[in-house]
Amino acid sequence: QVRLVESGGGLVQAGGSLRLSCAASGSIFSINTMGWHRQAPGKQRELVAAITSRGTTNYADSVKGRFTISRDNAMNTVYLQMNSLKPEDTAVYYCAAAQWGSNIYGSWGQGTQVTVSS
Description:
Layout (H helix, E strand, L loop, with lengths): L1 E6 L2 E4 L4 E9 L4 E9 L6 E6 L5 E3 L7 E6 L4 E6 L8 E9 L5 E4 L3 E6 L1
Parallel strand pairs: 2-11
Antiparallel strand pairs: 1-3, 3-8, 4-5, 4-9, 5-6, 7-8, 9-10, 9-11
C-alpha cells in the first residue's frame, strides 16, 4: 500500500504563489506516475499535472505556464509549484499515485485546500 500526505495549501491573493508537497511512504517502489488533481465545489475532480518516474510531465491547459510539477525520487516527494494563481484555482488539491503498468490512480492523499482571493 502507498500512503500519501499533502501539505502546503492555504489562502493567497490572486497573482500569488504556493507550493504543495506530497510525501509518499509504504510501497513506493510500485509507483510510476504521481499526479495532482483538484476539485472545486460543485465541479468534478480534474487532473492538474502529472509526472512519471522518468520525469515526463503533462499539464491541464488551464495551468500550463503557471504550474510546475516536480519529483524528488530520493525523498519520495512530489511538488506542485503554483504561480500567478487565479480565483478559479480555488479547490481542494489531491495527490495521487498510479502503479507501474496502470493508468489508474489507486492511491490518494487526504487533500489540501487552496483558496485564491480576488
